[in-house]
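Lecture notes, unit on protein representations.

Consider one protein chain, 81 amino acids long.
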Amino acid sequence: MHPVSEESPICSAKGCRTGAVWVLAWNNPKLHTPDRRKTWLACDEHREHLSQFLGVRGFLKDVVTLEEWERGKGAGSAADG
């Protein structure tokens, strides 16, 4: 999966090269502290699929637009990929 980058962000779904529109913030409580956020990117087509994948495992914490995420990074977001 691809972390959020400054270059043209693309969807994290396997084989998808479509531009990302969404950021799925998640963490695995067995591996990460509660405040840590890993990120996957999603296009409109794969947002639901990737959200469900993380959701059924209890990992999904938030889904926001890439634009909202980028605005939040300037405010000291704890996100990493």
